[in-house]
Write a structure and sequence with these properties.
Blueprint (H helix, E strand, L loop, with lengths): L15 H15 L14 E6 L5 H12 L3 E5 L12 H11 L3 E6 L4 H8 L3 E7 L5 H15 L8 E5 L6 H12 L3 E5 L14 E3 L2 H5 L4 E4 L13 H8 L3 H4 L7 E3 L12 H4 L6 H20 L6 H10 L1
Parallel strand pairs: 1-2, 1-3, 3-4, 5-6, 5-8, 6-7, 8-9
Bound molecules: N-carbamoyl-L-aspartate (NCD).
C-alpha cells in the first residue's frame, strides 16, 4: 500500500491497484453498514480532532470506528485547550501520551495531518487539511464510481470537476484517484479559481461547455462564499457555471452528477440536478461509512476484511 503502513495523509502517487485494494475491502464492509458490528478494533481509542466544521466526514468516521468495535472521542477545538492557544503539535503530543491509538484530523492548514503524524505514535488519518488533500473523500468517490462504471469503466472517460477548484482539497485528491483509474480529468471554473493548477495531469478550462461536452461524470464543488476571490461574482458564477439540466444535455447520455457536500442548491447546482436521477450525492454519503471502515481497518489492524472474517458478525445480524 502506498500509505506506508501507518497513516493516510494523501492519495497522491497511489496506483490504481492501491485504490482497488481499499475499494474491495469497503465492498466487504458494505454488508455491515446498516447494522451489526465487528470487533477488530475493540482495543482502539480513536480521537477525532476536527478544527473545521464537518457533518458527513466526521459522523461517518465516528460510525465506522464504532462499527469496528473502537471507542471514539470527539475533540472540539472550540472547547479544548486549543482556544487557550495550545498548538496543534502540543495537542497531538498530549493525545498520544493519553493513549489514543488513532487520530482523525481535519485542519484549516495544509500539511496539518503530516505534522500530526510526526508527533503521534499511532495512526493518523487526514480528514481534510486546508486546500491540500482529502484522501478519504476521493476514495469514497472512487468507490461510488465503481458501482456505476465497474472496475475499469473510467478508462478513457471524461470527468469534469466544476467550481472553486483552487480552494478545493476534494478536487486535488480526486485528480490523483481519477487519473490513476485512467479517466481524462478536466478542471473548470472562473479564471481566478483554476489558476496555478498547470502542474496537475489534467486539462484546465474556463469554458464550462467544453468541460461538460461528453463527460461521463460531472463533479460539483461548493462555492465557498467565505473564500470568494476578487473578480468572481456569485451572479456571474451562476450564469456561467451552475450545473443545470440544460447544461447536462451536453454530457454523455448516462452521465452522473457528484458533489462532496455541503451543497449550495441554486448556486453551484440546481435543486433539480442535485436531487435528480443522475445525482449520486446520497450514495457518496452512504458509501462514506464502509469506505472509512476499510481505511481504519487496513491502517489500524493491518488487515482488510475478508468474507471469512465477516462471517461471525453476519451470522449474528
Ligand atoms: C468538503 C470538505 O470539507 O473538504 N466536504 C466534505 O468533506 N464532504 C467540501 C467543502 O467544504 O466544500
Amino acid at each position: 500500500m502506498s500509505w506506508s503502513g501507518r497513516h493516510l495523509l494523501d492519495v497522491e502517487g497511489w496506483s490504481e491497484s492501491d485504490v482497488d485494494r481499499v475499494v474491495t475491502v469497503a465492498e466487504d464492509f458494505r454488508v455491515l453498514s446498516r447494522g451489526g458490528a465487528v470487533t477488530y478494533l475493540s482495543n482502539t481509542h480513536v480521537a477525532l480532532l476536527f478544527a473545521e466544521p464537518s457533518t458527513r466526514t466526521r459522523l461517518s468516521f465516528e460510525i465506522a470506528a464504532r462499527r469496528l468495535g473502537a471507542k471514539t472521542y470527539v475533540l472540539d477545538p472550540g472547547s479544548s485547550s486549543m482556544v487557550k492557544g495550545e498548538t496543534l503539535v502540543d495537542t497531538v503530543r498530549n493525545l498520544d501520551a493519553i493513549g489514543f491509538s488513532a487520530l482523525v484530523v481535519r485542519h484549516h492548514r495544509a500539511g496539518a495531518a503530516a505534522v500530526a503524524a510526526r508527533y503521534f505514535g499511532g495512526t493518523v488519518i487526514n480528514a481534510g487539511d486546508g486546500w491540500h488533500a482529502h484522501p478519504t473523500q476521493a476514495l469514497v468517490d472512487a468507490f461510488t464510481l465503481r458501482d456505476v462504471f465497474g472496475q475499469t469503466g473510467l478508462r478513457g472517460r471524461k470527468v469534469a470537476i466544476v467550481g472553486d477548484v483552487l480552494h478545493s482539497r476534494v478536487a486535488r485528491s480526486n485528480v490523483w484517484t481519477l487519473t490513476g483509474a485512467g479517466a481524462e480529468v478536466w478542471l473548470c471554473g472562473p479564471a481566478a479559481w483554476v489558476q496555478g493548477l498547470e502542474s496537475l495531469p489534467v486539462r484546465v478550462t474556463t469554458d464550462c461547455g467544453a468541460a461538460l461536452r461528453d463527460a461521463a461524470v460531472v463533479m460539483g464543488l461548493r462555492v465557498q462564499k467565505e473564500r470568494m476571490a476578487p473578480g468572481v461574482s456569485l451572479s456571474e458564477y451562476v450564469r456561467d457555471y451552475q450545473v443545470t439540466e440544460s447544461r447536462l444535455m451536453r454530457t454523455a447520455p448516462e452521465s452522473v452528477y457528484m458533489h462532496p457536500g455541503p451543497i449550495n442548491e441554486g448556486v453551484e447546482v440546481t435543486r433539480e440536478v442535485a436531487r435528480g436521477p443522475r445525482s449520486l450525492v446520497l450514495e457518496q454519503a452512504r458509501n462514506g461509512v464502509p469506505m472509512r471502515m476499510a481505511v481504519l481497518s487496513l491502517l489500524a489492524v493491518g488487515v482488510g476484511a475478508t468474507p471469512e472474517m465477516l462471517e461471525p458478525a453476519l451470522a449474528r445480524s
